[in-house]
Design goal:
Length: 342
């Protein structure tokens, strides 16, 4: 069977310390895709840089891999998964010689994909230079430090730059594979696979909605900082004003209100606030209100209009605009995903 008529060949590259769930994603999503005559659209194989044999995962699961790096030479798509062992996405920063040699066997024109911190491998090989990419939000700072030439976007679930695609943390590999399926064969095929897998064919938003920044924790640290400043006689902090504001998010707070509570001029308060938080007072206040809205959407049945008033946004329209801008989804969509019944 020639390349134009045989199923698209996908090679999933795993290493010691791989995550079993990530290995299963491309096998499940691509493996069950069928055309109108129920013929397989993809052939999915697993390979490892070290050659055939047992490969230990990050748990007590061992997998017998039948293919070595030679499988990469005939792959139309190569999927690189994460690994919790030394290497670019583990404790070390460089590609091992074995992994570098394996990647060198990928044929020109093959499509490259990564799941989670598998993006570190592609970046270490120079395959993401100048391209958009994403990875797990917990590793985004380290990724930026190691690979400043990559256009990292830590907020999205996946990136698509044509022949190079990356996904965020773990389960977003499902989103990426379904996206590729839609791109290759249309929405109907992707929807059927999603239906059989019992996952949404498309998830709204990005990683921002999964990052928890507890307001209460921030308040604790700020109050500790306030006490330390008072005891040590250091330069006045904006911590007291921030703690005061957190108890009054439902009120129409102004910059003058915050500065007055801190006993500073507006100019001094604004400068010191940015030095201490890295944000302007308006940015910080909006973020705290969005965080409070998340808590109310998750834990209450309050209508969106009441959530908006309790968070200080005033109207449901304002709440929707701010939540959409920060989290990438509407308040209603966020509630459907994260609401916890009392």
């Amino acid at each position: 069977m020639n390349r134009s008529t045989r199923p698209h060949r996908v090679a999933v590259l795993i290493r010691t310390g791989f995550i079993p769930f990530e290995l299963g994603i491309p096998h499940r999503i691509f493996g069950i895709a069928r055309d109108a005559e129920h013929r397989p659209l993809y052939e999915v194989v697993t390979c490892t840089p070290g050659g055939p044999g047992l490969v230990r995962s990050d748990s007590d699961v061992l997998v017998q891999v039948e293919h070595g790096p030679e499988a990469l030479e005939t792959a139309d798509t190569v999927v690189v998964t994460a690994s919790h062992t030394p290497g670019p996405d583990g404790a070390e920063e460089e590609l091992t010689p074995e992994l570098a040699a394996a990647l060198a066997r990928i044929r020109p024109g093959a499509r490259l994909m990564s799941i989670c911190t598998g993006a570190f491998v592609l970046a270490a090989a120079g395959l993401l230079d100048g391209r958009p990419a994403t990875t797990h939000w917990l590793e985004s700072d380290r990724f930026r430090q190691l690979y400043p030439r990559v256009a990292l976007d830590p907020d999205v679930l996946y990136t698509d730059d044509g022949d190079v695609l990356t996904s965020a943390g773990v389960a977003s590999g499902v989103d990426l594979c379904l996206h590729v399926l839609r791109r290759d064969h249309g929405a109907a095929v992707a929807q059927e696979v999603a239906r059989r897998t019992v996952v949404p064919p498309h998830r709204d938003g990005g990683q921002a909605q999964y990052i928890r920044r507890p307001v209460s924790i921030e308040r604790v640290f700020e109050r500790e900082a306030e006490r330390a400043d008072a005891a040590g006689g250091r330069v006045a902090s904006t911590a007291a004003a921030r703690s005061w504001a957190l108890d009054r998010l439902d009120e129409p707070l102004t910059l003058s209100d915050l500065a007055r509570h801190a006993a500073m001029s507006v100019r001094t308060f604004t400068r010191r606030f940015r030095d201490e938080t890295g944000e302007s007072p308006a940015q910080w206040l909006t973020r705290q209100r969005v965080e409070h809205a998340r808590t109310l959407l998750e834990t209450t049945e309050l209508p969106v209009e009441q959530v908006a008033r309790r968070c200080g946004f005033g109207t449901a329209q304002s709440l929707r605009a701010h939540v959409q801008a920060v989290l990438g989804v509407t308040p209603s969509a966020y509630r459907r995903t994260f609401h916890r019944a009392a």
